Amino acid sequence: MTSLDPAPLSGRQPRAVRSALAVLEEVVASGSGVTAKEISAALKLPQATTYRLLNLLVAEEYLVRLPDLRGFALGRRAARLSPAVAPALSTAARTVVDHLRGMVRWGVHLASFSAGQVTLIDPDPDHPPSDGHVLARYPQVTALGKLLLAEQPDWRALVRDLRRFTEFTVTSGAELSAQLDGIAEAGLARQCGELRADRGCLAVPVRGPGTGMLVAGLALCGPAHRVAESNEELIGLMRDHAERLAPLLA
Amino acid sequence: MQQDSGRILAELRLRSPVHGLARRHLGPLDVFAQSVSGAAPAAAMSATPVIVAATAGPATTWSFLVATVLALLIGTCIGRFTRRMAAAGSLYSLTAKGLGPGWAFGCGVALLVGYGALAMAALAGAAIYLDTLIVRAGLGAPGSRPVLVTAVCALAILAVTLALVGVRLSARVVLLVEAISISLMVLIFAVLLGSEGSSGVPPADAVPGPGLGGIAAGVLPALAAFIGFEAATALGVEARRPFQTIPRAVQWTAGISGLLYLFAAYTQVVGFADVPGGLAGQTEPVPQLAAAHGRLWLSVLLDLGIAMSFFACALATGSALVRVLFSMARDGIAPAAFGATHRRYRTPHVAIAVALPIAAGVPALLLALGMPAGRVLSELLTVATVGYLVAYLLVCLAAPLFLRRIGELTTPPVVVTAVIVPILLVVLIAFVVSSLGRPLPIVAGLLVVVGAVWLVWLRLRRPDRLAGIGAYDETVAADVFDERQVGIR
């Protein structure tokens, strides 16, 4: 997404990088709502420099300006600086997932979408899913990742490159946009052979009760040709379980 | 502090006040094209130098240089806002964050007049040059009323469709059309300049200079050639990386248009250097130059390029116009329907369906009533220029006040405003005075009255709405990294 300047660091740039990181840290330390002047005073940085760095960090979405335009807070992109830790799952939630596993013969996985990343929090032990790094790096080729992308104002913020894994992989931005629009509308993501030619997945969102915020995704994985079928009963089952998970996760 | 931050995050809205538009959708080129087309350099390259030359004579290029610097300074003032907030209401929404609601309202009305009149003028201009092309093809008599009116209507229908179906589609069309027309213009002027090389005399030596006064008077029309360069500001919500692309698009447009104008002015000044009276004595300098060099095909390309540039300008200005209306509606000071967006296309469809037909109706009516086409174009351009100048003046005045309000004021913004505001004020007054006796003062006076009545009505009926104007794409809960969302238990 972001084109990085290929020129090596030189002159005053190392100091600028250090100052930018210090500004980020200062926003974390002072909490949301800290103003540019306060940051400049705390770091003893010249005001003009601080303002320029803040505008840069806002443009890059590591920081956001709060609605009063004075205060700053960490932006969603800052979440990507820390590796996502799989949060512990409550016994009640685990029971719901296991219940679904007992009813179907496919792999059942539960993933969290916190911090704008796909993190498996309950992968099916009998049907091991794809490598977690692939899930996090290429969300566009998995059903769970597609759910997350469909929720974004602009999916490009979370996609690094449209790499081709199989002949079914979607590699055109316009095609992916159209697909994600469909997913957002249906509340169901389907992926057939886009990561591995013979495998596919269905995924439904788990939304926080009341807020409607996307917190997790529940996926069923199986043979690609079976995933391609309409699977109405299975999807109904998934939606039931996603609904039961919602109060346990949000 | 930490407790504060929890409260601050809890108070964030769940949905942006300008929701419904295609948020974070447009790449840098699309945004850039919007601004370039707003300024329509291809059309101004052939039309403006001769107007500037009327006062500046052989120093025409100097007037353009000064105007370029002024445009860059205005761009800097706009950048103070656009680096910090993403809005759909262009300068209106920005001014609201610096000056009070009354001034912002004035800026909004001035922008509606500016965008509206420029869209009308651009539609008329495109129709005029299409008509010329038709005449060249031997398919009609020049200045035929039915042809002109039909052309305006057809172009307007095309513009409405493009604007309605999606911001990306219309941005792409604008980009393509403007790229072609500018390339055509650069080609034409390069050919003209190249063929003059043998006989070309450096102009400054041939005629005595016009003096500083002449250059200053020439700045007036030269600056008018830049109006519309801020058009990208209306795409704040729809740009993918607004804080980066919008300020850049505006500044680059000012710079590149300036270069194009300097190139065009130089070519024309040199081209007429050995003609008695120089460039100032001409009426249609570029076609004449082309004809003098025996290159009729150049004239055809020229007409095509100008027509395309005008159409792109109408489209870009039209989408800025509807976004100002949209923002005013979301602020609650214009009919609420204008704030509606199409569910699928994510464009302000009601504002488009109302405003663009009006923008086409006015020039179509004037042409149908028999007003000469060239006059329709020039009068509308004059009205547009006044609207823009008022809006620029207010936004430049608002910039340092905005920075002070958010506690980020430094010295340079104050200096820039202190320089640019008096100049813009003088330019504005000179512009109005120079057009005394033409319809402009009457039209402007009428519009001021309409604006004042609207403002008084708002003060009486909706004082709370008026006080709260300036909705922009503010940070919502989903944009913020909130540690409470992370821990799933």
TrEMBL record, chain A:
Family annotation (Gene3D superfamilies): 3.30.450.40, Winged helix-like DNA-binding domain superfamily/Winged helix DNA-binding domain (1.10.10.10)
Organism from which the protein derives: Pseudonocardia asaccharolytica DSM 44247 = NBRC 16224
Superkingdom classification of source: Bacteria
Record Pfam families: HTH_IclR (PF09339), IclR_C (PF01614)
SUPFAM superfamilies hit by this protein: GAF domain-like (SSF55781), Winged helix' DNA-binding domain (SSF46785)
Record GO terms (molecular function): DNA binding; DNA-binding transcription factor activity
Protein's UniProt name: Transcriptional regulator
Entry's Gene Ontology BP terms: negative regulation of DNA-templated transcription
Domain (HTH iclR-type) ranges: 14-76
Keywords: DNA-binding, Transcription, Transcription regulation
Lineage: Bacteria, Bacillati, Actinomycetota, Actinomycetes, Pseudonocardiales
Domain IclR-ED: 77-250
UniProtKB/TrEMBL annotation, chain B:
Stated name of the protein: Amino acid permease
Organism: Pseudonocardia asaccharolytica DSM 44247 = NBRC 16224
GO CC terms, sorted: membrane
Keyword Nuclease in annotation: no
GO BP terms: transmembrane transport
UniProt subcellular location: Membrane
InterPro entries according to UniProt: AA-permease/SLC12A_dom, APC_superfamily
Keyword Cell membrane: no
Keywords on record: Membrane, Transmembrane, Transmembrane helix
Transmembrane feature ranges: 31-56, 62-82, 103-128, 148-167, 174-195, 215-237, 249-269, 304-326, 347-368, 380-402, 414-433, 439-458
Predominant location: membrane
Membrane topology: Multi-pass membrane protein
Domain Amino acid permease/ SLC12A: 31-432
